Amino acid sequence: MSANLSTNLPTTEFNPAGEALGRWWTPQDDGRILCELCPRACRLKPGDRGFCFVRTNHDGRMVLDTYGRSTGFCIDPIEKKPLNHFLPGTAVLSFGTAGCNLGCKFCQNWDISKSREVARLSDPATPEAIAQAAMQWGCRSVAYTYNDPVIWAEYAIDTAAACRAVGIQSVAVTAGYISPQAREEFFDAMDAANIDLKSFNEEFYHRVTGSHLQPVLDTIRYVCNETDVWVELTNLVIPDSNDHHTELQQMCDWILETVGSDVPVHFTAFHPDFRMTDRPRTSHESLIEAYDLARKAGLRYVYVGNIHDLRRQSTFCPNCGKLLIERDWHQLDRYEMNENRCGYCQHVIAGVFESEPGNWGRRRQPIRISAPQRTPLPPSRRLRCRLLRVTRQATMVLTNKPGI
Ligand code: SF4
Questions:
Q1: Is the CB of 51 within 6 Å of ligand 1?
Q2: What is the pLDDT of residues 348-357, one digit of tens each?
Q3: Where are any strands of DSSP class E within 247-389?
Q4: Residues 387 and 21 sit within 8 Å (Cβ to Cβ)
Q5: pLDDT, tens digit, for every residue of 226-262?
Q6: Domain Radical SAM core spans what residues (predicted)?
Q7: Does 72-342 carry CATH code 3.20.20.70?
Q8: Disulfide engineering: 52 pairs with which of 70, 115, 151, 222, CB 3.0-4.6 Å?
Q9: How far is CA 337 from the centre of its chain?
Q10: ipTM of the assembly?
Q11: What is the DSSP letter of 283?
Q12: Contact partners, residue 369, CB within 8 Å, separation at least 6
């Protein structure tokens, strides 16, 4: 795992409105700019916003509109990301911004991902303030989640650098829809990732998510095989959409052949939401079928989520079969690990484990991170020549606030 502490500190300049010069773009001959951050490859005229709604052509330059602003902060159990083999039982400071580069009809966070009111919804926080908050609350990691951090990669990377400098790890929760140009730097900043594999069917990806399957597979292959990032995969099982036996079999076979049997796979229950309200919640039986199929395919660590199922949420030793980590939803109970080994037969268990698990439990604790006093903006919010460096010495106030 990439636990190396880096002294690289955040470098992006931004203004208090949350505008920062974006990266991964090139000017075009016709006056547009081409965004090269994700495979959608938006070509933007001056004033245009990308599909994700948070990257804009400001006078011929790419600007990220949500730098230093969040839709809210919450301390979660790491199991909620979900990550079952990464510092079990510990607290993770989670936050997201607004917008998304996918258009999933079943989006379970659509109020955030489809938000068009970035400024009104957002809480300001510098990367350093977030790292300090994580330390103050005893979090072992910070998660870039709720909406896809790929579209706010500059903010996520800078926050991860600030976290790494103080020994806090970083977790990306992402659909993996990122271009080869950006993915190396993005995942270099991360220590763990949960990557959504929404289906193993290009037609589903195109029709239901407005994206494509192959770039996601490329990301999974890259992160698992060419980086030290700890990876777990999630598949949201949607009734009569992506739950066909053949498709699940193909997906599990691909995972096994491409990234191996040690990558944990989570099959989670769908609930009707956003533009997919025409079908029921995923049944427990469907999750069990997916679980059984994956185990028979040879995957060693398979879990079900968004449902109570003690056995299928717990970790068993693939060698001796004994129960090692007992989970009920996000609550740990028995813990029979000897650091990263089975406490009975000493078989190595893939993941990032310490001698003791965390004791955060299943709580969710919304918090507020107050930003430092900032230099006032000029009357106009136009970006031209006005990007300024905000003081990095945050004075931070944490208070409880109502649920996010
Ligand atoms: S990151 Fe946003 S602007 Fe860039 S290509 Fe993707 S959707 Fe378009």
A1: yes
A2: 999 999 999 9
A3: 265-269, 302-305, 315-316, 323-328, 331-335, 337-338, 341-342, 365-369
A4: yes
A5: 999 999 999 999 998 888 999 999 999 999 999 999 9
A6: 85-300
A7: yes
A8: 151
A9: 26
A10: 0.99
A11: P
A12: 73, 123, 125, 129, 130, 133, 396, 397, 398
